Every structure is written in C-alpha cells, then in structure tokens.
Amino acid sequence: MRLAGKVAFISGSTRGIGRSMAEMFAAEGAQVVVSGRSVDKGEKVAERIRAAGGDATFIRLDVADEASVQEAIAATIARYGKLTTLINNAAPTDLVSAGFKPMHELTTDEWEAILRTTLTGNVFWASKYAIPHLIERGGGSIIMTSSMSAMAGDLHYAAYGSSKGGLNSFTRYVATQYGKHRIRANAICPGLVVTPAARSLIPPEMLAIYEGNHLTPELGAPDQVAAVAVFLASDAAGYVTGQAIPVDGGLYAHLPTYAQMRAAEA
C-alpha cells in the first residue's frame, strides 16, 4: 500500500472530494483524520472507513475559527503521535454559493467570509500549526485543493477564485521556505467535479456548457482528484513540489473554437 505509515489530516472531508480522499487514503494504508463542521456526517465517514478495514478518526473542525484549527491539529498529534500529510481541502459551499454574483455586487462581509474560510483558515492557519510538527518529524507533504477558478476569470465567484489564486501562491511560498526541511507543498486544481454540492451550486445550463468544453467524454468525479492527492502524498512524488496541477479534463487546454466546432457538428 502506497501510504502505509502515513497520518493524513484532511479538512472538509465529510463529503465530496474530501470524503473520497479520506476513503482512498485509508484504503492505501494511511491513518486518516476526517474533519469538518458536521459531526454526524464526519462520524459516518469515519465509521464507513473503519468498517472497510481502515483507520479513521473524526475531529470537528471549523476553518473560520483559528482556535478550532489549532486544536484539531493538536488532537491529531495526540491521537496518532505524528502528522505526515496535511490536506487543506475545506471550502464551505454556503459561502461560495453566496458569491454567485458579479464582483461589484458582493458585500464586504461576503468577500471577507470567503477569504477567511477558504484561504486564511483552511490554508494559512492549518499550515501554520501543522508545519512545526512536520519539521520535527523530518518532513511531510502539504496538499492544497485549489481550483481552475484560480487560473482564469469567470462571470461569477470572484471572491472564491481570488482565494484560490492566493492559495496557489501560498503553496509556492511553503514549498520555497520549507523545502530544505523535506516538506513538499503542491496544489491540485480541479475543473468541474460532479458532486451533489456542485450540482446544487451550478445551474443546468452552465453544466451543459462545461460538458461541451471538456475534452474527456464525462465530467470529473471526486475519486479522480483523490487519486492525484494519493500520488502527491506518496514517496513516489518525492521530487514534486511547488506545483499547481490541473485535474480538469482538458477544460483549459484548448481555445474557444473547440466548443464552437462541437456545436456545429451536433
């Protein structure tokens, strides 16, 4: 198993991409901390992992609360004695949904709430409190769940895309400042991944546009993103750091003419 001996803390792992990461990491031999705001959902994920033969613990986490982030990292160390892998995955969908409007219509509170959770809490605080433990044990891997929204502008989600752009930059700084401590940092940039949360956020007509622009026959699934995270956490990725890796079905690999030609052929 590729992750035997690893201890992974995964924020936002009670559903969606984070849940797939937790389940796949456990299947690959890692001891996993499932975390998120919902105790009921989180406990069920951990129970499902244990029922499948894995090792998982749920720790409640609110990335908008610095004390909660610090306590969750400390609880991980207390439970498993070490931390080797930090996955900063949380992005509260209720706040992201509130940002579905042109930038000038965002309130300051909406803007700051998205940046506080998605960038400050999920990324800065989690890394700040995890890095000393990673240094102490001789290194580890930090994996950020970013987004292709960080790579290109869109008609909505300005705060979310900006937070993910900051996340990508933060990833490079972590890789630069802590690489000699054997800490690697990378970001995964998913395109549209079909989860219940994505379907609730994106209107059907927008889903159709995405389907027409992806180069793959189907839109992405959470386990396809999780598989990339497993690689980045494994020793096989020992020479990979400071990268923002698209996992987007080729969405940003072509010019707009592709969709136009597809439409003309239909």
Descriptive report:
The chain is of the alpha/beta class and 266 residues long. 50% of the residues lie in helices and 14% in strands. It has a single domain, classed as Rossmann fold. Strands 3-2-1-4-5-6-7 form a seven-stranded parallel sheet, sandwiched between helices. The N and C termini lie far apart (45 Å).
Shape label: globular
Q: Count of helical segments?
A: 10
Distance between the termini: 45 Å
For the residues shown, what is the average pLDDT?
Answer: 93
CATH H-level superfamily: NAD(P)-binding Rossmann-like Domain
Radius of gyration: 18 Å
**Sheet with most strands:** 7 strands, parallel
* CATH C-level label: Alpha Beta
**The number of domains:** 1
Approximate strand percentage:
5-15%
Number of strands: 7
Order of helices and strands: EHEHEHEHHEHEHHHEH
Q: Which spans of ≥5 residues are poorly predicted at pLDDT below 50?
A: none
Strand order, sheet with most strands? 3-2-1-4-5-6-7
Helical percent range? 40-55%
CATH fold-level name? Rossmann fold
List the helices and strands and how they pair.
Layout: E1 7-10, H1 16-27, E2 31-36, H2 39-51, E3 55-60, H3 66-80, E4 85-88, H4 93-98, H5 108-136, E5 140-145, H6 158-178, E6 183-190, H7 196-201, H8 204-213, H9 222-233, E7 244-247, H10 257-265
Helix pairs in contact: 1-9, 3-5, 5-6
Please give a quick description of this structure.
This protein has 266 residues and is of the alpha/beta class. The protein has helices spanning 16-27, 39-51, 66-80, 93-98, 108-136, 158-178, 196-201, 204-213, 222-233, 257-265; strands at 7-10, 31-36, 55-60, 85-88, 140-145, 183-190, 244-247.
